[in-house]
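Support request, please re-run this one:
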Amino acid sequence: LQFVGGLMLTPFVTRLLGPADYGMVTTSMIIMQAVFQVAGLSLATGLQRSYAHLGRENARRLLGFAVVTTLAITLLLDLTGPLWVHAFGLSDYGGASRFAVWWGGASAIATAQTSLLRSEDKLAGYAILMALQSVLADAAGLAICLYLDASATLFVAGKLAATALGAVVGLGYI
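Re-run finished. Output below.
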């Protein structure tokens, strides 16, 4: 779903944003993936193992730990952004790159939640959360650009908003 949705929206996004802004979007996606890996600490996989071997309550505690540590690491990466942003070929930190950091953190939290939802066989919550952080996130970014201003910053902000909403909604299913 995520791959197909992204594939279908890419032509619209590239034409709407233009080469420079789309280049910033792809750089932001790389930053998001790096933050996702670092801040997530692979706890999503650990959640499923914890659920299988130690039970539901231990997995829920691990999810709480995952949320707190992911937020702390994401905040640290945001505060130190000006020190490392040059590694991604950017001259300054802010706008799309800053939103990408928080998008990566929100994605790590949402992915940890989907692991627990999958373990608990809560299909409705899992499906809603996956939709919000994939196809609907792309659609939110595109919609914001259509209605406000076509920029990389707003596109990434839309993806962050949908993913963060998914993480908040996901808590209701846990």
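The chain has a mean pLDDT of 89. DSSP finds eight helices and no strands in the chain.
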